[in-house]
Design goal:
The chain has 188 residues and is of the alpha+beta class. Helix content is 34%, strand content 11%. The chain is globular and about 45 Å long. It binds zinc ion (ZN). The site of zinc ion (ZN) has 4 residues, from strand 4.
């Protein structure tokens, strides 16, 4: 469980079982990797979406501490730390570093990483069906004061089918609330 109050430990953690899932990739290198459990679940979910006529692509998976450091530093240089913190996780605080999370696209590139992605078929399908494969939309609309992140309809996190289904059926929107953890709107 990683958020702005709960960094990875150690900060440079690397999942021991990173693999490249057999799904449509629109990325390469480390970003095409997930941990083995998440990769297997992603394969099942992307295949089910495809069978329903919905294309989902893996836009960004694993991100190492070193990569996150470069990305975050770039934002800080360009816009200062306050703005950087709204756009990019600090190194050691990204859910992408866990191997349990990834970003999806729809293959067209339309609305990629934009709020309007919510109305693309891939996002609509994921919002309705992802729990069946163990995933939740980790940063839902209007919950940034709890999660620390504005709405990201493209960012999915694996928590297992049982937990994801339970969370949905109980109407709980965030992992912080589901696990009874304090809200993490910003870094301490
Ligand atoms: Zn993401």
């Amino acid at each position: 469980m990683v958020n702005k109050h709960r960094p990875l430990s150690p900060a440079t953690f690397v999942p021991p079982d990173l693999v490249r899932p057999g799904v449509r990739l629109v990325t390469s290198g480390e970003a095409a990797l997930l941990n083995s459990t998440t990769a297997a679940a992603a394969e099942r979910m992307f295949a089910a979406a495809a069978a329903a006529g919905v294309i989902i692509t893996l836009a960004s998976g694993y991100r190492s501490f070193a990569t996150q450091k470069v990305t975050y530093s770039g934002w800080v240089r360009a816009q200062g730390q306050a703005a950087a913190d709204t756009a990019s996780a600090r190194p050691g605080y990204s859910e992408h570093q866990t191997g349990w999370a990834f970003d999806i696209g729809d293959g067209s590139g339309a609305d990629a990483f934009q709020p309007n992605f919510r109305s693309r078929p891939a996002a609509l399908w994921a919002a309705a069906q992802a729990h069946r494969f163990g995933f939740v939309v980790r940063y839902p609309w209007t919950f940034h004061e709890i999660t620390g992140y504005f709405y990201e309809p493209w960012h999915l996190r694996y928590i297992g089918i049982e937990a994801a289904t339970d969370m949905l059926s109980r109407g709980i929107a965030t992992l912080e609330q589901y696990f009874g953890l304090e809200a993490a709107p910003g870094y301490r």
